[in-house]
Amino acid sequence: xxxxxxxxxxxxxxxxxxxxxxxxxxxxxxxxxxxxxxxxxxxxxxxxxxxxxxxxxxxxxxxxxxxxxxxxxxxxxxxxxxxxxxxxxxxxxxxxxxxxxxxxxxxxxxxxxxxxxxxxxxxxxxxxxxxxxxxxxxxxxxxxxxxxxxxxxxxxxxxxxxxxxxxxxxxxxxxxxxxxxxxxxxxxxxxxxxxxxxxxxxxxxxxxxxxxxxxxxxxxxxxxxxxxxxxxxxxxxxxxxxxxxxxxxxxxxxxxxxxxxxxxxxxxxxxxxxxxxxxxxxxxxxxxxxxxxxxxxxxxxxxxxxxxxxxxxxxxxxxxxxxxxxxxxxxxxxxxxxxxxxxxxxxxxxxxxxxxxxxxxxxxxxxxxxxxxxxxxxxxxxxxxxxxxxxxxxxxxxxxxxxxxxxxxxxxxxxxxxxxxxxxxxxxxxxxxxxxxxxxxxxxxxxxxxxxxxxxxxxxxxxxxxxxxxxxxxxxxxxxxxxxxxxxxxxxxxxxxxxxxxxxxxxxxxxxxxxxxxxxxxxxxxxxxxxxxxxxxxxxxxxxxxxxxxxxxxxxxxxxxxxxxxxxxxxxxxxxxxxxxxxxxxxxxxxxxxxxxxxxxxxxxxxxxxxxxxxxxxxxxxxxxxxxxxxxxxxxxxxxxxxxxxxxxxxxxxxxxxxxxxxxxxxxxxxxxxxxxxxx
Amino acid sequence: xxxxxxxxxxxxxxxxxxxxxxxxxxxxxxxxxxxxxxxxxxxxxxxxxxxxxxxxxxxxxxxxxxxxxxxxxxxxxxxxxxxxxxxxxxxxxxxxxxxxxxxxxxxxxxxxxxxxxxxx
Lengths: 680, 120
What we know:
The structure holds two protein chains of two kinds.
Chain A: H1 9-31, H2 37-56, H3 60-77, H4 85-106, H5 113-129, E1 151-159, H6 170-178, E2 181-188, E3 206-213, H7 217-223, E4 231-238, E5 250-251, H8 254-285, H9 297-321, H10 329-353, E6 355-357, H11 359-362, H12 364-376, E7 380-385, E8 390-392, H13 393-414, H14 418-423, E9 430-439, E10 442-449, H15 456-465, H16 477-483, H17 505-514, E11 518-524, E12 528-536, E13 541-549, E14 552-557, E15 561-565, E16 572-574, E17 580-584, E18 587-593, H18 594-598, E19 611-617, E20 620-626, E21 628-636, H19 640-643, E22 650-655, E23 661-665, H20 667-679
Parallel strand pairs in A: 7-9, 14-23, 18-20
Antiparallel strand pairs in A: 1-3, 1-4, 2-3, 2-5, 6-8, 9-10, 10-12, 11-12, 13-14, 13-21, 15-19, 16-17, 17-18, 19-20, 22-23
Helix pairs in contact in A: 1-2, 1-4, 1-12, 2-3, 3-4, 3-5, 4-5, 9-10, 12-13, 13-17, 15-16
Chain B: E1 3-7, H1 11-23, E2 27-31, H2 34-41, E3 48-52, H3 60-69, E4 78-83, H4 87-96, E5 100-104, H5 108-119
Parallel strand pairs in B: 1-2, 1-3, 3-4, 4-5
């Protein structure tokens, strides 16, 4: 029978990548000096599993590569080899190679042999050169010597008395030998004690066997593989027909052998039928990498529970609906509020299914910091906290790149060289802190360091050189910090291989804003810098304030609203370029008339007759002039880009309760437009 | 038909073993480490144990040792899934009471052939 092993590939890849992750973090721990046996064991186990799996599932190149790796790790585990930084680095490279190999194999792409062979060679070299002898290389399988015709084998088998206690049964061995030819068995009862001294759990028997077979000696030997260590075994070859000195000669029950065979065939045919069905199922699923998430079973149970409640509420409503009269109004309101609760809870639990701990994004940072610090010759200690903070899967996937960029920047620009730090009276090893927590409806990620802080002079000089700031323009510290987010800004003196690859902080900010979040900088010269990234928990739903302009409705994200107020006409002034500003708490903010922006017909154009919604985005404020405020509600965000095209100042659309469509305002985008006008 | 306890921390290997055995008509109980295997074995009638060696919490050898001490598992066949690199493990396993081993990598046919031999 043949079983289609492809159905297990997806699981194999998933667990192998997880294994590689744990190898990587284990290796990084070793690097930090934590030489405990548990860690080495974990690393070994991961390599071992990948080797076993890849061999079994037919990825022989991966198996071959892992074999050397495993041998090396085994020596470390047994204490035969020292854990040197060189060895750890090589092992880390091996993890990379394996990751590449597995990715290639999963995508059915070609493996990068050059890279793999190089690291494989290095591993081999280390094995042969270093401490400890490579004792774990498997012995070559014994050569097969084929006898031309049948041959008689004389076998003397005397097991130790505890044979049965390892679950071994001599009958199994005889049955196996019987499959190779005709077998004559003679039991040796000489060691059998008197009945009163007989332990029923011990084996006192020995056997002399004669096997007439074409089988090779290795095949016969194989039958005794499991018991060789605990028995006296002697296998000798005789010329066919040589008389055998045996008292009685018996045939191994041919019936028993027969039964085993038929059962096997029956089982095989059932299995292949199952297999055919399974393989049909897997072909559909195996096209490329399938996106899947692991969901805690309790989350699914919760969901099922809630759907159950929803069905009950629906039944109640259905009953009220039959012959409805006003006396049932109370019951109706009650049931409707129940429906409201059900829906909200259901929504929350569905959201929770998409939530993953942020450690998925944080996990790659230790390796990054390790590689960067050795490349840059800096000493960096990484501290992480809040790894269990949960975040929507999509947000998670898209935050990884900005996060990596920020960490890279911090190692490159933020933390100083050891000698510079020493001179400044700081410890040689810099600290990089990465943390995450929930604040309100947001996830806040902080990347902080105790390095030099942002160099304001250098930033300002560079910005002036590039014409991003006018020569005479005065800027506050915060405004200077903000300059690094401008497109085309990079202070790296030369484009290094670490940061400054053309992907600047502007892309980081754009990506974060694309997720509906923002990034802020706090920096103190000589003490360090802190980047605070604020992200929404999910992209699918947000709390919004609906506002009306004429017959149109717009949604303003609740998080960006500071206050809504009536502004007097005398507090509004028009600037030379036609832009308007208004006075709000001793500060002049740009004023945007929404009807102007979106070409709507308002109820009023008189500022004092409508409402001013003061909003904030990217640390800057502006006022939106609208007719009136409507309710606050949770809105489901529908992408405008996917259905129409990208519109400046609008982040999406939603469907209101009455079926009409409302546009969701992109506050940072609007403020950018407004400030451009103000500056121009 | 016989009941087989399949123990492996690697889900893919465990699924493969279980799928193969179920396909051949055996009842299969699965466990992802020695501790859970021991739990599963107690109070059930298991006819054969197939266990990986390297596992977290309790490895295959410790599992075999523990199982052998239970009266109902005194003579039950117990097989280790091992790689050739773990040659020392075979003897360690034997000393703990293992019946025998299946060398990784193996294919479903080899697995089934071995198990049939043991169960007769």
